[in-house]
Amino acid sequence: MAETHESVSSLGIPPSQYVVDVSVIDSTTHVEVPLGFFIRNPLTGHDTLNCPSYVFLIESHQGKRVLFDLGLRKDTVSFPPVIRSGMANLIMKTEKDVATILKDDGRLALADINSIIWSHWHADHTGDPSTFPPTTELVVGPGFKNKLLPGYPADPNGLILESDHAGRLLREIDFRTGLKIGQFRAMDFFGDGSFYLLDAPGHAIGHMCALARTTPTTFIFMGGDGCHHCGCLRPANELPIPKEVSPSPFSNPPHSPGSVCPGSLLAEIHPKKSRTEPYYTQLSAAEGRDVPEAEATILKMIAFDESQDVFVIIAHDNTLLDVIDFFPETVNAWKQKGWKGTSRWRFLTDFKDAAAEADLIKPAGRW
């Protein structure tokens, strides 16, 4: 089956010659969470989300610098009691905070960061804004101020810390701009078409994604927690399971050069035996999650993932760790370097146990 791709023009992205430089920062955050907390009925053996938490540095031609998310704060004992309690049975740790990563690199002063944008308020994304000077504003999504302020300790049951926003501008995005990109309400952050924030509700209060123009015609979609596994995005109508995947996700070791996996095998382990629907289409219920809204956000994301000119990077995609270049390098040349194609089907490695259970591959991993 030949692959086709969603046209970028069909996404309604306004044309612009202005681009931003984008770097992906490995925040050194490591998270292990039961996958069933996010996805209903995950495939056999796919029990745990074992992942990083990416941070994005965006630099505009105007000299503005923005961080999209901050990973996990290093001093987790400082979290509000409600958050500490929720983390008790999870593995969440980090080696450095993002401020330290930037200082160690030495190319930017912390005062050079104009804005910190939170995709949402969850602990593995908020980091520690207090490590940045008060000239750095904190940007949040719709409903944040009404639902989450003032924070702990003023509110003993607060979900964020007062120190996250104390003494700095706290700006809540209003998406009533009339601008839509794809099916997302959008806001042109720099006013020149180089970087957009997208209203992506469902996962949490005020959840946002972002779209960065890396060349005049190519983009990086910063997915935050719009979804937690690429099996929520792929396959799709415009990105079906191909006749074969090479290198094979089920080789031993995975992705061994020259290995090949037939697409028929990949369709066989699909819950619906489908080549054109994502493996995972239903999310689990959780406190603070609007499941219908979250599932609708994923459907909106799929249109971007189908485009050959948009590279979707979700915050917790561990398949990219040995594919892309990390900070201080930029990822603007992602298309030229073929990273989208290289990484597209790597998530299938997580389904090896399902394939083995169906007697489609040997337990050692070779089909």
Task: From the structure above, extract its key features.
Metallo-beta-lactamase, Chain A; disordered C terminus; 6-stranded mixed beta sheet; 17 strands; single chain; 10 helices; alpha+beta
Describe the structure.
- A six-stranded mixed beta sheet has the order 1-4-5-7-8-9, with no helix packed on it. Strands 10-11-12-13-14-17 form a six-stranded mixed beta sheet, covered by helices on one side.
- It has one domain: 4-Layer Sandwich (Metallo-beta-lactamase, Chain A).
- The radius of gyration is 20 Å and the shape is globular.
- It has ten helices and 17 strands.
- Strand 12 (195-199) and strand 13 (208-215) form a beta hairpin.
- It has helices at 81-87, 98-105, 123-126, 144-148, 162-165, 263-268, 291-305, 334-337, 339-343, 352-357; strands at residues 20-26, 29-34, 48-51, 54-60, 65-68, 91-94, 115-117, 137-140, 170-172, 180-181, 184-188, 195-199, 208-215, 218-224, 244-245, 261-262, 310-314.
- The protein is an alpha+beta fold.
- Keywords: Hydrolase, Metal-binding, Zinc.
- Residues 52-264 form the Metallo-beta-lactamase domain.
- InterPro entries: MBL_superfamily_lactonases (IPR051013), Metallo-B-lactamas (IPR001279), RibonucZ/Hydroxyglut_hydro (IPR036866).
- GO terms for molecular function: hydrolase activity; metal ion binding.
- This is Metallo-beta-lactamase domain-containing protein.
